[in-house]
Automatic annotation (TrEMBL):
NCBIfam families: cbbA (TIGR00167). Signal peptide: none annotated. It comes from the Bacteria. Its cofactor is Zn(2+). Pfam families: F_bP_aldolase. This is Class II fructose-bisphosphate aldolase. PROSITE patterns: ALDOLASE_CLASS_II_1 (PS00602).
């Protein structure tokens, strides 16, 4: 199957009334695990690069690594640039071959967010690329106010205006989640999500997925979330397993044993995580 357009992967998830999982990855072990773990679960997957991680892998290198992994499996695989509010950087990602990017103008007032996102959509069109926008603000989990303050949540009517004015392929919305590790489990506002989903045809995206209780996640997939981003949890597991190898398995598998150990453990995690969704793929 190899590489597919993110818009097609999301449309398929939408048809199934579920979400596709998207993971931030920055090295070979994480990218291979994301693709191979999803393939083992027979689920589509989107592999994302978080711009802050681009110091560890180049834009072109990232695209090549994901493509190489995608060629070896039969599930749909998407490539996406996660949170970016820098227009020039987004253009370099498009030039490097990213078929999907996020234009994050969520900290801007509505009109400016629309103008910024619409300009990215126009540019991305020339590359045949997809664009995810964000409205409302998904903040930081370390700051409890960021996910319990409903004034930061996306308003359904504004979401409709934003989606129509920008022409985004996907829309990240805020209804009680936050990035990073939560100080205590969040309580997502499913009613708000339902209202947004009724007002907007565009596939919706849930950010800040690390640490949301399973039942709540499944509820969001049933109520309009078609893409579910996981960053923090996956990243910390990468560190944990690499460390674990040196504690437990030192000298066992030669100089690169830790890479293989992390890839194997992370693949098992991804397979399990992907099974949260009901979007199976059999070829
Ligand atoms: Zn995010």
């Amino acid at each position: 199957m190899s590489l597919e357009r993110v818009r097609d992967i999301l449309a398929e998830a939408d048809r199934h009334g579920t979400a596709v999982l998207a993971f931030d990855a920055m090295n070979y072990a994480m990218i291979a695990a994301a693709v191979q773990g999803a393939a083992a679960a027979k689920r589509p997957v989107i592999v994302m690069l978080y711009p802050e991680m681009a110091g560890y892998v180049s834009l072109e290198g990232f695209v090549s690594l994901v493509k190489e992994q995608a060629r070896q499996v039969s599930i749909p695989v998407g490539i996406h640039l996660d949170h970016c509010s820098n227009f020039e950087y987004i253009v370099s990602a498009l030039r490097a071959g990213f078929p999907s990017v996020m234009a994050d103008g969520s900290l801007l007032p509505l009109e400016e967010n629309i103008a910024f996102t619409a300009s990215v959509v126009r540019t991305a069109k020339a590359f045949g690329a997809d664009v995810e926008g964000e409205l409302g603000h998904v903040g930081k989990a370390a700051n409890e106010r960021d996910y319990i303050s409903s004034e930061l949540y996306t308003q359904a009517e504004e979401a409709r205006i934003f989606a129509e004015a920008t022409g985004v392929t996907a829309l990240a919305v805020a209804f009680g989640s936050a990035h990073g590790n939560y100080t205590r489990p969040p309580k997502l506002n499913i009613t708000r999500l339902r209202e947004i989903n009724e007002a907007v045809k565009t596939p919706l995206v849930l950010h800040g997925g690390s640490g949301i209780p399973k039942e709540q996640l499944i509820d969001t997939f049933r109520n309009g979330i078609n893409k579910f981003n996981v960053g923090t949890e996956f990243s910390y597991l990468n560190q944990k397993y690499t460390g674990q190898y040196f504690e437990q398995a030192r000298e066992r598998d030669g100089a690169c044993g830790h890479v293989e150990y992390a890839r194997e453990k992370l693949s098992a995690y991804i397979m399990e995580k992907c099974r949260l969704t009901s979007c199976t793929f059999d070829s």
